[in-house]
Amino acid sequence: MRYSFFYLKSVIFLSLVLLISEPLCCLASEFPVRKRAGIVIVRNGIDAFIRNPSEAHFPYRVFEKDGQNIMGPIGSWSKPDSLRYLLRFDVEGAFEKQGLKLEEFNLTRAVLLLTPSRKSASKQMIPITIHPLTNYFAGRNTSTSPSGQCEGADWTNRVQFISWYHEGGDFLLNPSAKAIIPAVENREVEIDITSIMKLCFDNFRKTGKWVDYGMIIMRDKDIQSDCLYRNIYGFNAVNLRMHHEFRGKTLVPELYLE
Question: Is the N or C terminus of the chain more exposed, i.e. has fewer CB atoms within 10 Å?
């Protein structure tokens, strides 16, 4: 009986050690294991899908202020780049959970993964461009008033009652990243954003403070295309992971740091 009790305690102890040693943002019970290499994998953050107010007839306008967008559009409607996506990963939190120090990390590559909804399609592929933001924004998945109206970022304001300097988002033209969202396929879109993330790490080494305003993703209007838009899954798509249709799939945006 004594041996059985000791054996049981050992099994429990080893199980706890294995559980704790697994990065919290990568637990199999929460997300499927990824085949892609990455020293740090970030799957948490805040985001907001914003649109130009002139898009009065955009089909998904009714969801604009619900504050719980599982997905949102990137691309064109009546204007080339009027449907945009604001995205900021919790890089600091990911490092802390995995027991790593930002100051000891040497970034060699950063890859962003986005997943289009299989229920949306465009006439043609959608060329997109990504730029670093220069101001903080409030995510629509985190800021909702008691009345149910979202108080997060939109085309005019970055947080409630505080406007962007430039409507549609304040961002740098360089560095930037470019990619293509397929017209129909629902495969993941892999985008190299090393130059954008390197800006944050370089600034951290100079100041000792992590400053990351996030990034903005929009249609690249400099590339000719008769595309419309595709719906992209945002961070709130994590709520779909227990649905039988999406079980075993990671829909949320992912950031791989190597």
Answer: N
